Each structure stands twice: as structure tokens, then as C-alpha cells.
Amino acid sequence: MGSLTPTLQLVKEEIPVKQQPLRLSGDIKTGLVLVDVVNGFCTVGAGNMAPTEPNEKITKMVEESVSLSKKFAEKNWPIFAFLDSHHPDIPEPPYPSHCLIGSDEGKLVPELLWLENEPNATLRRKECIDGFLGSYEKDGSNVFADWVKKNQIKQILVAGICTDVCVLDFVCSVLSARNRQFLPPLENVIVSTEACSTYDVPLHVAKTNKD
């Protein structure tokens, strides 16, 4: 990667994010969180929110997410996978209809379908952008918070799509919950730059989309 532009360098210096190589060990209980690595966002032509042609960023994200998942599974470390899932009668404006319940869009990409039978993996269908909010049950309990507590997770490693939407919202909510001591014993929230991705909306689509 080339040198950063002055603007990007300034942003990097000012934002409260520490970038560094990641080395995981069994000394700190770590859980992997996958955000929406599903056909509806990753598989070419799979739906309204899927890429229309092969996308290098998304391909790289999927490859890295699969690699991390296999490593966590081999070590019997906990995995939590969010699957975007929507009822056809409950829209999510400004986004077009996507990842409807029962459709292939809401399923994990083929390379990750094995997680459905992985004993250390928890799959959670969410009906909203923010997976943390989408983890709440009607009785007030939170499936993600229960997962953290049950596994005594000290840090999570987050991967998935889109970096600036579902991943960002989830991470911000988790940080707020951690800071309010709602997620003991969680301490660290780590986002993988290699295993996250987003994509640009073409200008003509943005101009012609009524939403």
C-alpha cells in the first residue's frame, strides 16, 4: 500500500483507533464475530444488495473471514455469526428489499455453510442493521451478551460487511455497552481490516434510486 494522503494521515492520527498487527493466543479468551457474511451481500447477483459483478474487496473479505473461522474452529474458540434476515412486510428504508426470511440471500456464503454444524458457532438472524440491538429477545435478554458471558470472552475479533454500516453500528453499540459494564467480562473490541469490506454505490444508482 502506498503512502497515505495528508488528509488520511490526519484522520488516522486523530481517530481513537489503534492499528497494529494482531496475534491471538489462548491466554486471552477471544471470540470471533462475523457480520452478515451472507449471499445477499457477498455473492454476485444474489439480490438487490449483492455485488453485480466480482468485487475484489468482498472476495478478500470472504476469504479472510473463512480463514479466521477455520482457525477459531480448530482451536475450539467461540464463533458468533450474524445473518441479516428480514420479514417481507417489514421494510428497512432507505435500503431496497433484501435478505428476506427463507431466501438464499440470508444464508451464509457457501464457504461458511459448515458453521451451521459447528458446535462452537452461534448463528443469530437479525432483522436490523445493528446486530447488538438485533440480539435482544422479547423478554429483554440479549443473545450476544449471553454468549459473551457464557464463554467468558475477554475480547472479540469482528469481521464482515459492510464496514461503514452493519459492522460499524455493531462495534459502536458493543463499545457503549462495554463502557456501561453491560458486557462483562468483555474488555477489547478488535476489527480486522483484512476481513471487513464495503463497496461504493455507483453515482447513477444513487441519483436514480428513489430512496
TrEMBL record:
CDD domains: cysteine_hydrolases. Pfam families: Isochorismatase. Residues 31-207 form the Isochorismatase-like domain. It comes from the Eukaryota. One of its GO terms (biological process) is pyridine nucleotide salvage. GO terms for molecular function: nicotinamidase activity. InterPro entries: Isochorismatase-like_dom (IPR000868), Isochorismatase-like_sf (IPR036380), NIC1 (IPR044717). Belongs to the isochorismatase family. This is Isochorismatase-like domain-containing protein. It comes from Lotus japonicus (Lotus corniculatus var. japonicus).
